[in-house]
Amino acid sequence: MNIDKQYFLNLAKDLLTTPSPSGYCHHIIDKVENYAKALNLDFKRTNKGNAIIEIKGNHDDYVVGLSAHVDTLGLMVRSINGNGTLNITTIGGNQSNSLIGEYCTVFTRDNKSYQGTILTTSYSSHVYDDASKKGSNFDELMIRLDERVASSSDVTALGINNGDVIAIDPKTIITENGFIKSRHIDDKISVAIIFTLIKAIKESNLELNNTIKFIISTYEEVGHGAAYIPNDIKELIAVDMGCIGKDLACTEYDVSICAKDSSGPYDYQLTSKLIEIAKKTNLNFAVDIYPYYGSDASAALRGGNDIKAALIGPGVHASHGMERTHYDACENAIKLLASYLTE
Length: 343
Ligand SMILES: [Zn+2]
Description:
Helix content: 25-40%
Bound molecules: zinc ion
Number of helices: 7
Shape: globular
Number of domains: 2
Strand content: 25-35%
CATH class of the largest domain: Alpha Beta
Radius of gyration: 21 Å
CATH topology of the largest domain: Aminopeptidase
């Protein structure tokens, strides 16, 4: 099977640099639709705004679901201060201290956008004696707009209002030696992984054992991304970032297979089968337990779907902060899924 690395990296970069906090995914799903059409794939959109792409396999009576989420962490305007700065509320599980000093874009509901910077409320060392101590919660953060504003009415005159969505600058860089550095690698990288997998399967004329439905979800970071899935799906493999850190075996070069997360253990047989394939195919992989994590497969189970559920994905360092992974982890994930779906 020939994996098109350049296609993968270009797609990853395009997705990573397209703003898509949970609840603001219509633009990126339009983009995903174009990528699906370029591969002649059958693309559908659910009422909630998720995408479902179906690819026929040899058996239609056991549909395998693959999911990856295209929504990310973000912020929202909570209120506007009298001095023209903005108070914020988090969308998803942001680490407030990792946002200090980050650039951001505010999207108004009348389609304008404005640049700004996330700062603490003690924003200058020369003025505030607690400047190095602030920023551990969202009440201690604010946004300084790159506009000449000195009052709340100056801000509303720009069209900015409470409830406007704010995207954090992803700072995407792909290095010559294969590192992918960006916010929101979780989980745009897995959307790129699955598209690259589908392209490779098509171009190599490999046959899928079963029909697959690829769900690109949009509310994962707030807990209900793939709570609904088509009812002919019998098993769902969530492809989402693998955790790295204390007690965990995974690195940025491995595909991670999750045995258990905060939602409990994943399906025993399906997880065992994925581990067996990873061993047989000589992939760099790790089996881990994620202490603070829930996936789209957990959401689907909680949504009442009668499915076998599993979770795999490339190892991502410093998740929900300044994330990084390596191409090798992504390639291991592609190979694991390809073997599972075609052999
Ligand atoms: Zn994720």
